[in-house]
Amino acid sequence: TRLAILISGRGSNMAALVYASRADDCPYEPVLVTGNKPDAPGLYLAEAEGVATARLDGKSAAFWDDLDKALRDHEVEMIALAGFMRIIPDQFIARWTGQIVNIHPSLLPKYKGIGTHKAAIEAGDTVTGATVHLVIPELDSGEILGQVEVAIMHGDTPDTLADRVLIAEHQLYPQVLSRYLGRKSDPEWLLDKVRSLAL
Ligand code: GRF
């Protein structure tokens, strides 16, 4: 599966997806790294790893059309958001239904949007984590594909917690994406889908 990874910043989750793709049995191939920040540090990292990039200007009125074109030019089949900090217009999501996944640093449905670690600490939670989910128009609300739990320790700040959750994200994202893409040919998964039609 030809994968595009969309970033806005440092791109450590992007790097984790790229490194994991080098395993022989990985069902996806990163063919494009792009996003809304033409000078995002992660774009340099992607280039150093030999993955094509497109430096698009998120402030341009044509941004979403430019992005769509870049994705089609690279014959992208699946899009992974990895620290992509723009709300995606419904119309764009509709064009790529079921083909966009995101990683979010909380145990969804808890703490949608930004500020997840601060919210979890302030709520007195002892466990938080990260979630990989399908992207639908409603923010951070699509089908959950996989989660990992991370303990909140006494004395954690949003920054120390973010660091610990990030390490878990790097393992979770490639694992869940590979399982999601791989399972399309998995007879058990197909049977489940057929059963869920409840005919
Ligand atoms: C990650 O914590 C991701 O879950 C959140 O933004 C952060 C991106 O980090 N949405 P990176 O750019 O992948 O290093």
Automatic annotation (TrEMBL):
N(1)-(5-phospho-beta-D-ribosyl)glycinamide binds at G11, S12, N13. GO terms for cellular component: cytosol. This is Phosphoribosylglycinamide formyltransferase. Its EC number is 2.1.2.2. Keywords: Purine biosynthesis, Transferase. The chain holds residues 6 to 204 of 314 of the full protein. Pathway: Purine metabolism; IMP biosynthesis via de novo pathway; N(2)-formyl-N(1)-(5-phospho-D-ribosyl)glycinamide from N(1)-(5-phospho-D-ribosyl)glycinamide (10-formyl THF route): step 1/1. The active site is at H104 (proton donor). Catalyzes the transfer of a formyl group from 10-formyltetrahydrofolate to 5-phospho-ribosyl-glycinamide (GAR), producing 5-phospho-ribosyl-N-formylglycinamide (FGAR) and tetrahydrofolate. The gene is purN.
